Amino acid sequence: MTDAAALYDSFHAIAERADRDMSERDVENLFLERGFYDALDYEGTGIDLRSEFTLPDDRRPDYITLDTNEAVTAVYEFKTTGRDLAPHESQLFGYMNHLRAEYGVLTNGERLRLYQRGDDDPTLVVSMASATESDARDLVSALRKREFDLTDPAEVEAFLADLDPVPLDERAELGQEHFFDTFRLEDGSPFADLVTGMMDLLGELRDERDATFVTGAYDFWEATYASEPEDVPASWDPFIDDGGSLRDFMFCLESAHALLARLLLAKATEDHDFFAGTGYDGMAEYFRGLQGFGETINLDAFLVAADNLIDDMQEQLVEGLFQDDIFVWWTDGYAEQLDRGHGTGASQFADVARGTGDVERISEPTRDRFSRAVAEVFVNVLRFDFADVEGDLLGDLYQRYFDPETRKALGEFYTPGPVIDYIMDGVGYERGVANDRLIDPACGSGTFLVEAVERYLKDVERYEDDPDWETHLRDLCTRPRIVGLDVHPFAVLMAQIRFVVAILPAYREAKTANPSFTLRRLPIYRTDTLRNERELTGADLGDEGSRQITLDAMTEDDQDVRIPVPLPIEADADEPAETEDGFLVRRVRMPLFDTIRLETGVANFGEYFAALQGVLDTVKDHMALAEEFGGEFDWRYRSGLEERINRYTTQDYSGTEEFFAEYVNDMLETVRYLREEHDDGRLFKMFEDTVLALV
Questions:
Q1: At which of 143, 177, 198 does a domain end?
Q2: Per-residue H/E/C for 61-75
Q3: Is 552 a residue whose pLDDT tops 50?
Q4: Are residue 11 and residue 139 in the same domain, yes or no?
C-alpha cells in the first residue's frame, strides 16, 4: 500500500545523502536505495520499474514505472547534483509523449519537478530537504502504482475512454521498444502469462479430461512438427525448470504466438482505417456493451471477444488466415461460453460478461488464470497504435516481437536483407514480374516471400499510375503469382501474416474502392515438400503431359486422383480406416487436369487452379450452413458452385457446376463423417492446403 509518510521519509533520506559530486547514476541509485519507489508501491527493477530502453542514438529515459496493465505511468529523468533542471524539460516531454506517460519527473537529487503530459509548467516543484508531508501526499496521488481491475466495468470504460495509444511509426523508437518489452517472453509479462496459462489449460484438457481435439492436435504436432532444440534458450528456463515438459511449453508457446499475432494483425488493420465504409467497427464494437454495465465483468468475455474477433477477420480481412488450425485447441475448454446460443460478436461478449457461466471441462483456478491472461493480452494490444506503420517497419515488428533465440529454437532462421536481395536479383525477379510465378518450397516465416511481394507491388506501380488493386491482388493471390510452402503450420501462419502486412496499403485501397472485396485465401500452404505426394496420389494434378500411376490412388475410370490428407485425429484400433503413424487419413477426390479440360473447356493451369478455389469455397459455405442448421442439415450440394468458380476464373465456363458437383458432395461426405464419427469437422484448411499445394 502506498504510504505518504514513507515517501516523506524517503525524500529527506535522499536529501541527506545528496552532495555536489554525484553523477546521474549516483542520483538514480539514491532513489532506489532510499525507498522512493517502495513508498509508491512498486515491486522493483525488471518488474514494474524499467530502465532498459535505449534508442539508436544512445538516448534513453532513465526509468519508467508501469501499472498492473504494463502501461507507462511516469518517466523519470535524473541529472547530476547541482545541475539546472529547466533546460532538460523538452527531453522529458519527448519521452512522455512517445510513451503516452501521464506524468514525468525531473530531478537532480536536490530538487524535484513533477510534470503532467500536455502542460509545459510543472505541477509541483519541491526541494528534497524541505519537502512537506503535503508535498508527499501530492506525489503519492500522482505517481503511485495504479491497479487496473479488468473485472470492473467502470475501470475498463475509463481505460477505453482515456486510451491514447502509443505510436509505433518509424519516428517512435521508444514506443517500439516499449511494444517489444510488453510482449517479451519473460516471467510475469502479459505474453508469458498467456503461455503459462495455456500450459495449465493443456494439462487439464489433455491429461485430465482427455479432450479429443486437444489430444489429437497436440499428438499430431508432436509426431509431425515438433523438434526439440539442441540448445534450449535461456529465456525458456523459468517455464521448464520446475519440471514442466519442454514440448508442452513449445506447443503452448506457438499457440500463444498464433493468438497474439492474429490479434496484432486485427489491430493493425483497424488502425489503418482498413474497415472504413464496411460498417464494421472492429474491436471497439465489443466494448460498447459495457456502457452502463454495473456488474462485475466475467473475464471469459475477453476470450469470447478474441475468438469472435478472429471470426470477424475471416469475413473482413482474409478468410484462410483466420481459419481454425491446431493452435485453436484452447477453445475446447470454453465450449459453453463460445456456444452461439449466447449470440455472436459484441452481443455474445456482453452476454458472457454479465454472467458467471458454466465451464465444465476446466477447474476454476485454471479458468481464471487463462481468461485473465487473454484479457491482459487483449487490452495490451489496444494500447499500441499501428496507424502510421507500413511496409518493412510493420513486418519488422512482427519479426521482432519474439526474440531471436526463441525464433531459432522454433526453427525460424533469419536471412539478412542483402542476401535476400542478392538471390532475388540473381533470379531476375525485379522488373516485369507481374506475370511471373515465384515459389519458395521452404518459406519459413516468409522473408523471401515478403521481398517478392514488395517487388511485385513496386512493379505494378512502375507501369500504372492508378493501379486497380482489387484486380492485381486477386491475381497475386488466386492465380497465384507468389507461392510459399512449408511443413510447419506455425511458420505458415507467420508467413501469411507477413504477407498481409506487405500488401496492406494496396489492400486498403482496394477495400476503399470496393468495401465488399475480401481475399478468401493467401498463396501460402502447409505441406511437406519432401513428401512424395505424386507417388502417394499417382498423379500431378496440374501436369498436362504425363502422370505417374499408383493404382490405389486412381479411381476406376482413371479420371480422378484421391489425395491423402493426414489429420490430427487419432484413429481407433478397431476402426476400418486408413491411417498414417496412428492418425486418421482421409482422401480428397479431385479431377485430373486433362479430365476437366475435356469436360468443361478449362484451358490452362491457372484457370484450373482458380476453379478449384471456387470448389473449396462451395464446400466451406455449405459447412457454414451445417453449423447454422445443426443436425437437420442435409449434407448434399445445394447451389452456388458455378457462381463461386466464376469468381476466380477469367471467363465463364459451361458445365462446371454439373462437373464439380460430385466432387463437392464427396468432400461434404468427408466433413460429415468427421463431425458425426469424431465430433470434429474443423481444420478443413488442411484439405485446402494439401490440394492447392499439390497443384
A1: 143
A2: CCEEEECCCCCEEEE
A3: no
A4: yes
The H or E element spanning position 19 is: none
Q: In 3-state terms, what secondary structure has residue 554?
A: strand
Count the helix, strand and coil residues of the chain and give each as a percent rounded to the nearest 5: 55, 10, 35
Domain that residue 96 falls in: 4-143
Mean pLDDT of 213-235: 86
Grid cell in block for residue 254: 506457438
Q: Which of 311, 269, 693 is nearest to 503 (CA)?
A: 269
- 511 shares its domain with 550: no
Contacts of 695 (CB under 8 A, 6+ apart): 541, 542, 605, 608, 609, 612
Q: Are 493 and 325 in contact (CB under 8 A)?
A: yes
Cα angle 417, 478, 655 (rounded to 5 degrees) comes to 165
Distance CA 366, CA 364 (A): 6
Question: Do 566 and 504 belong to one domain?
Answer: no
Last residue of a domain, one of 507, 526, 545: 526
Q: How far apart are CA 35 and CA 30, in angstroms?
A: 9
DSSP state of 45: B
105, β-bridge pairs? 76, 114
Average pLDDT value for residue range 572-594: 84
Q: How distant, in Å, are the alpha carbons of 14, 249, 393, 430, 550 from that of 421?
A: 56, 36, 17, 10, 42
Residue pair 166/383 in contact (Cβ under 8 Å)? The answer is: yes
Return the closest-CA partner of residue 47 out of 181, 197, 154. Answer: 181
The answer to the question of residue 28 being in a domain is: yes
What CA–CA distance (Å, rounded) separates 273 from 242? 45
Q: Is residue 221 part of a domain?
A: yes
Answer yes or no: do 557 and 629 share one domain: yes
Number of structural domains in the chain: 4
Spatial separation of the C-alpha atoms in residues 174 and 82, rounded to whole Å:
28
Domain membership of residue 158 (yes or no) is no
**What is Dmax (Cα atoms) for the chain?**
97
Nearest to 584 by CA among 136, 195, 162, 217: 217
What are the two backbone dihedrals, phi and then psi, of residue 156, each rounded to the nearest 5 degrees? -65, -40
- Could you tell me which residues are beta bridge partners of residue 585? 566
- Please identify which residue in the block is written with the cell numbers 497474439: 260
**What CA dihedral angle connects 685, 690, 694 and 695, to 10 degrees?**
-30
Q: Mean pLDDT lowest for which of 218-227, 276-285, 451-460? A: 276-285
Q: Per-residue confidence at 451, pLDDT binned at 50, 70, 90?
A: very high
Q: Identify the DSSP state of 318.
A: B
Q: Are residues 590 and 685 in the same domain?
A: yes
- 544 domain-assigned: yes
474 and 541 share a domain? no
Same domain? 305 vs 366: yes
Instruction: Give this prediction's pTM.
Output: 0.87
pLDDT at 1: 52
- If you write DSSP's letter for every residue of 468-531 in order, what string do you get? -HHHHHHHHHHTTSEEEEES-HHHHHHHHHHHHHHHHHHHHHHHHH-TT--B---SEEE--TTS
Residues 481 and 560 in one domain: no
Q: Which residue did the predictor score with more confidence, 480 or 358?
A: 480
Dihedral sign, CA of 607, 608, 613, 617? positive
